[in-house]
Write a structure and sequence with these properties.
With about 210 residues, the protein is α/β, with parallel strands linked by helices. It contains nine helices and seven strands; from the N terminus they run H-H-E-H-E-H-E-H-E-H-E-H-H-E-H-E. The chain has one domain: Vaccinia Virus protein VP39 (Rossmann fold), CATH 3.40.50.150. The chain binds S-adenosylmethionine (SAM).
């Protein structure tokens, strides 16, 4: 995760504005209620946390990422804002089974909500990782995914893929649709040239 360790130094300052409204929308779609337990997979610097906290303060929040650099920024963000009930842990998302999480957190835990923003276009073996995220969810729990899909590839697609180490050919929402009920997907109003394709949010309930 050397690239994201490095990228962590400028990640928030370069991307915060671009994705701000999309994160807000994603958190709205999480449909949070007090007392819920949530995990942010590939949470990076924790850019979603301020929106999650604004939506509902009474939650148990977990964030996980492979990059120690991104997690360090995330932790300093948490400390700076004096946010309570957010626990970060380092993991390769490909290893995120419930027994792995239990061992990591030292408790048996299932989640009411899973969010993953701009993670599944980056993480290898994303289909298996999506299955793992759904396994972590309680029956009736909700998952929200934000990511980019390049319908028409162009130079910007190539640039974003190089820069973010991403693959923008993944039809993530289509797979999510086959695995959830109450599926909903919409495109978000971010210019395609800025993110290399169409930014979308997709959500569904665990079957
Ligand atoms: C484009 S960033 C998105 C970060 C954050 N979710 C956000 O919304 O800003 C992609 C993130 O995926 C993480 N990542 C890449 N491969 C991973 C893996 N195998 N397991 C967990 N996280 C991974 C990177 O470290 C990085 O933080």
């Amino acid at each position: 995760m050397k690239w994201y360790d490095l990228f962590s130094n400028v990640y928030d300052s370069s991307l915060e504005k671009l994705y701000f409204e999309s994160r807000k929308k994603a958190v709205e779609l999480l449909d949070l209620a007090p007392g819920q337990v949530l995990i942010d997979v590939a949470c990076g610097t924790g850019a979603n946390f301020k929106h999650i906290k604004a939506a509902n303060t009474n939650l148990e929040i977990y964030g996980t990422d492979f990059s120690e650099g991104m997690l360090r920024k995330g932790q300093s963000n948490i400390d700076k804002n004096n946010w309570k009930n957010i626990t970060l842990f380092q993991a390769d998302a490909r290893a995120l089974t419930s027994s792995f999480v239990k061992e990591k957190l030292n408790k048996d835990i299932t989640f009411d909500r899973v969010i993953c923003v701009l993670g599944l276009s980056v993480i290898p073996d994303w289909e298996q990782v999506l299955d793992k995220m759904l396994d972590l969810l309680k029956e009736g729990g909700r998952i929200v995914i934000v990511d980019v899909f390049a319908e028409k590839r162009n130079f910007n697609t190539w640039l974003v893929e190089k820069f973010a180490r991403a693959d923008l050919d993944r039809k993530i929402w289509q797979t999510l649709k086959t695995k959830t009920t109450n599926f909903h997907q919409e495109y978000l109003p971010v210019k395609e040239r800025k993110v290399g394709g169409k930014l979308f949010v997709a959500t569904g309930i665990k079957n």
